[in-house]
Amino acid sequence: MINPVILASGGLDSFLCWYIFRQDALNVFVNIGHKYIKKEGQALRNLQKEIPNFNVKEHKGSQIGPMEDEMSGIIPNRNAELILSAAVYGEWIYFGVIKDEINSDKSPEFIKAMEDVLNISNRKQYWTEGKTFQILTPTKEYNKTDLIKMYLDKGGLVEHLELTVSCYSDTEHHCGDCPSCFKRWIAFKNNDIPFVTINDPMDFAHKQGIIEKCTDGTYADGRANEIITALRK
After folding, report:
1. Sequence-ordered strand ranges (E) for 83-128
2. Is the pTM of this model over 0.85?
């Protein structure tokens, strides 16, 4: 029997992956001691309370959260740990990679390497009958704007979408001043969904030169078009 699991953070991508592609999967939330863990944990509890078949398992990780790079919000080796932790609970691991992701720990090479690690480590040997793992990324062909539209077309409720959290700060509400908030704001705006933040995401865009990056070739065409479409709204 194959057990499907989703790497869940209480965020937009993992929730959309669950709703659109695998509603029978267990949502595995890995506590790595990151500064916004309370906000993510509360989002998952809220979703579990409102959606009967949304099941969550919290796993205590190695507490690498304080290693976060303040500029990018990246926690080194995070996704490797999340995948290894999720493998404790299931053999099919759903990983919410989005189209035009540029981080190397979301690349096809990384995913293949992690899959190899799991399958080599768990091959049949003297102590086990063996297990075969797959890391699946069904969201990788779509951006956040596309996925929200698919969610809504499938009958998903805006109220449930609003229970998710996409923010790198330890503030109670979305800060509006981090890459995660900005990406969420773009996707919400393109789907005509209001998104309230502490700070104006446009201020973040100006500080980071995002508008310029949309026109100078820094961003892939798909990402640039998604941002420009939202800004024109």
Report:
1. 92-94
2. yes
